[in-house]
Amino acid sequence: MFTAFLIKYAEIGVKGKNKHLFEEALAQQVKYALKRCEGEFKVSRTEGRIYVHALSEFDYDETVDNLKTVFGISGICPVIDVVDEGFEKLAQTVIEYVDRTYENKNITFKVNTRRARKNYPMNSMELNMELGSRVLDVFPEMKVDVHHPDVMLHVEIREKIYIYSIEIPGPGGMPVGSNGKAMLLLSGGIDSPVAGYMIAKRGVKIDAVYFHAPPYTSDRAKQKVIDLARLVSRYAGPVYLHIINFTDIQLYIYEKCPHEELTIIMRRYMMKIAERIAKENACLGLITGESIGQVASQTVQSLAVTNEVCTLPVFRPLIGFDKMEIVDVSEKIGTYETSILPYEDCCTIFVAKHPVTKPNLNIIKRHEKNLEEKIDELVQQALDTDEVVVVKW
Ligand code: ATP
Ligand code: MG
Question: What pTM was computed for the model?
Answer without folding.
Answer: 0.93
